[in-house]
């Protein structure tokens, strides 16, 4: 449940809400909400539905929130690394072309001498 608490904390921060704001909206004490965020308190289904509604999402969206963001982060990192790899491959091809050109120049020089 700690990961769920982290997701709830992240959502709260994205909304710019304090723990007090959320606790009031859920009609619970600040310490009770803090225990939800830290994973000390397990959340029952009705509280989970209440929290999901507060953040304007379904229970499934709440439970999977940030999992897709994490995947998007990995995809983004993968795209960056793929681009860097393509740049390096182009650099290697350019260097190979220079080596071939230099080899041809040396060969021509030997033939003309």
Automatic annotation (TrEMBL):
Example GO molecular function: DNA binding
Sorted UniProt keywords: Coiled coil, DNA-binding
Ranges where the HTH cro/C1-type domain occurs: 8-62
Coiled coil segments of this chain: 71-98
InterPro entries: Cro/C1-type_HTH (IPR001387), Lambda_DNA-bd_dom_sf (IPR010982)
Record PANTHER family: DNA-BIDING PHAGE PROTEIN (PTHR46558:SF4), TRACRIPTIONAL REGULATORY PROTEIN-RELATED-RELATED (PTHR46558)
Protein name: Helix-turn-helix domain-containing protein
């Amino acid at each position: 449940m700690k990961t769920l608490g982290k997701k709830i904390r992240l959502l709260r921060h994205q909304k710019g809400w304090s723990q007090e704001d959320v606790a009031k909206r859920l009609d619970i004490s600040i310490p009770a909400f803090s225990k939800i965020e830290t994973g000390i308190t397990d959340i029952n289904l009705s509280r989970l539905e209440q929290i999901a509604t507060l953040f304007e999402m379904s229970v499934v969206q709440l439970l999977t929130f940030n999992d897709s963001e994490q995947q998007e982060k990995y995809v983004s990192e993968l795209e960056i690394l793929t681009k860097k790899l393509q740049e390096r491959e182009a650099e290697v091809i350019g260097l190979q072309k220079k080596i071939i050109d230099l080899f041809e120049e040396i060969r021509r020089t030997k033939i003309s001498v």
